[in-house]
Amino acid sequence: MVKRALISVYDKTSLLDFAKFLFEQNVEIISSGGTARFLKENGIPVKTVEEITGFPEILEGRVKTLHPKIHGAILADRSKPLHLQQLEQLGIETIDMVVVNLYPFEKMYIANASDEEMIENIDIGGPTLIRAAAKNYKNVAIVCDPKDYPIVVDEIKQYGEVRLETRLKLAQKAFELTSYYDSIVARYFRDKTKEIFPEFLTLGFKLHQTLRYGENPHQMAAAYVDLRYEGTIMDTTQLWGKELSFNNIADADAALSIVKEFTQPCAVGVKHTNPCGVACGETLLEAFEKMYEADPISIFGGIVALNRTVDEKTAEKMSQIFLEVVIAPDYDPKALEILMKKKNLRILKVKIDRLNQNELDLRKVSGGLLVQTPDSTDYNELRCVTKREPTPQELEDLLFAWKVVKHVKSNAIVLAKNLATVGIGAGQVNRLWPTEHCVRIAGPKANGAVLASDAFFPFPDAVEVAAKAGVTAIIQPGGSIRDEEVIKVANEYNIAMIFTGTRHFKH
């Protein structure tokens, strides 16, 4: 039975109807500050916190509810005679419901508010009230989300109280909220101290959507969002199509990461998080056609990312093949009309210009988490180590292929020609096999192509395979104990070779 409720909220969404319901149920309402004024102005009688505690708000509202007469009323365990005896001795009446939500620290953080605004939006009393009520959920209902008001109303109407199982769920939600809130505050201070790897790493993610299933139909899944970053796969607007799947999101994220590497019109095709084709062109249509020709087989059922507004001609070309997802910064009306004729196509809009280079790379492993800074360094040097230097065209293609190979699962090899991939070898356990794969896929296109390797060549065998296929230039990190052997083979075939001094493993 709810006899007394404390209400102190920043977000007053739906509060008036909820408070009116409690008042009509003869619940005594205690409130503070702006919430008390809001309720009184709307004809709902309240007792102020000051009336209960006999102590005024101080420090410009920094201290309002932090008082034994409030927290004793919330924390008392009704099953313990000693607790009830002490309350009676001190003249404290129990509080059966706490309705509290928090200062908008997250909103201020996302908006890059001033330090003064940030500090003043660190809520102290709110989390304390929420945690106290949640701790004592067997006796107290904690309501920290306006979306839960209808649940509480229905339970009181139906059962005359908020049931224990519901109070337990509300308590869990309360601790999830305060934990998330504190993680954002900790992150704000971590931004200021510039500490990348603190002793206690707190991560704040909010539920974005539950998914139909995970990588496979027997797995449950959900997507969580970090609201701090824009231009991410979680920041897209879906213009058309059914709900994104777990795999759609993973693949679209991979495609988006690659397309952001390029300033020229670019098209990226992805299957199973690996690119199957990447190309740049004078126009978006040219880029898409070159990307498609790079691997017209694998792109079937794939994801395409583009870094320009999709025009009618490009949309018409895309509509001729089966795609799962298209992601771009915008779409011409006619292009959108064409693409929306494909009922199974998901159409996403996103800010392509946001790189988010400060976002940490997180990877779950059994029993823990691997955390690293993003792979945002292209190279430390560009040093030609062979007798022949690359031509301007070869160098342009080498740098293009180098940007692509960093997004391919290791061991990775990329063949490219005229700013388009002609062969991509991914995820092999040695460097020879992906090279052979690239040469086979490229066929005659390998002749005159360039090659990028995400790590050094431990043996010259892969270089020889590429050379015999007609590859004319290679870009790689260097650093192998057999570098001289590799360079010797390159010179024998008149191949230009560039060392970057930077490795791009992707596991």
UniProtKB/TrEMBL annotation:
In terms of SMART domains, this protein maps to: AICARFT_IMPCHas, MGS
Output the superkingdom of the source species.
Bacteria
- Looking at the record, the residues that make up the MGS-like domain are 1-144
InterPro entries this protein is in? AICAR_Tfase_dup_dom_sf, Cytidine_deaminase-like, MGS-like_dom, MGS-like_dom_sf, PurH-like
Pathway linked to the protein:
Purine metabolism; IMP biosynthesis via de novo pathway; IMP from 5-formamido-1-(5-phospho-D-ribosyl)imidazole-4-carboxamide: step 1/1; Purine metabolism; IMP biosynthesis via de novo pathway; 5-formamido-1-(5-phospho-D-ribosyl)imidazole-4-carboxamide from 5-amino-1-(5-phospho-D-ribosyl)imidazole-4-carboxamide (10-formyl THF route): step 1/1
GO function term, MF aspect, one? IMP cyclohydrolase activity
Query: What does the record give as the reaction this protein catalyses?
Result: (6R)-10-formyltetrahydrofolate + 5-amino-1-(5-phospho-beta-D-ribosyl)imidazole-4-carboxamide = 5-formamido-1-(5-phospho-D-ribosyl)imidazole-4-carboxamide + (6S)-5,6,7,8-tetrahydrofolate; IMP + H2O = 5-formamido-1-(5-phospho-D-ribosyl)imidazole-4-carboxamide
GO terms, biological process:
'de novo' IMP biosynthetic process
**E.C. number:** 2.1.2.3, 3.5.4.10
Kindly state which keywords UniProt assigns to this record, in alphabetical order. Answer: Hydrolase, Multifunctional enzyme, Purine biosynthesis, Transferase
Cellular component terms, GO, for this chain's entry? cytosol
- Any Pfam family the entry gives: AICARFT_IMPCHas
Question: Which HAMAP family does the annotation name?
Answer: PurH
Annotated family = Belongs to the PurH family.
Q: What is known of its domains?
A: The IMP cyclohydrolase activity resides in the N-terminal region.
Q: What is this protein called?
A: Bifunctional purine biosynthesis protein PurH
* Species of origin: Pseudothermotoga thermarum DSM 5069
What is the gene called? purH
